[in-house]
Design brief:
The protein is built from 5 helices and 7 strands; from the N terminus they run ααααβββββββα. By secondary structure, it is of the alpha+beta class.
Length: 140
């Protein structure tokens, strides 16, 4: 928890119990959750927390580079505590999002073909290996 306090203090964000609980959830669960998923979990520990607090905290974390928003599903924002550039894979079958390590030389650049890069997102869509294995078992 001390590490999370330091992350917030380094960004000049007051480390409230609500903010720390949200960050702790993201740190423990690399499932690229929605704000609702975070709220549902944090509310079990802090019954007085509101959805507005969760949304405002996530917005503050994004503005300060602590959390990255993912717009991969097309219908909701998912949140990623891993801010180091990496790719994602979205399974169109089960809805899970996986981190992918892809050797992408552009991720290390701040400029590309004359453009200033401020954000980088790379993702793939398809069917994950777990769903493919499940389908194969069902068809045999």
């Amino acid at each position: 928890m001390e590490n999370l306090i330091n992350i917030l203090e380094d960004a000049n964000i007051k480390p409230t119990i609500e903010r720390l609980s949200i960050l702790n959830y993201l740190d423990r669960n690399h499932n690229h959750p929605t704000a609702s998923m975070i709220f549902d979990e944090v509310e079990t520990k802090i019954p007085t927390i509101s959805k507005t607090t969760v949304y405002n905290s996530l917005k503050l974390f994004i503005e300060n580079g602590i959390v990255t928003p993912l717009y991969i599903t097309g219908s909701e924002i998912r949140y990623d505590f891993t801010t180091k550039p990496h790719h994602h894979f979205f399974c169109e079958n089960c809805g899970k999002i996986f981190d992918l390590v892809v050797d992408c030389p552009i991720f290390s650049k701040k400029h590309f073909q004359g453009h200033l890069i401020r954000q980088q997102h790379g993702y793939f869509r398809g069917i994950c290996k777990d769903c493919l294995e499940k389908e194969a078992k069902e068809h045999h």
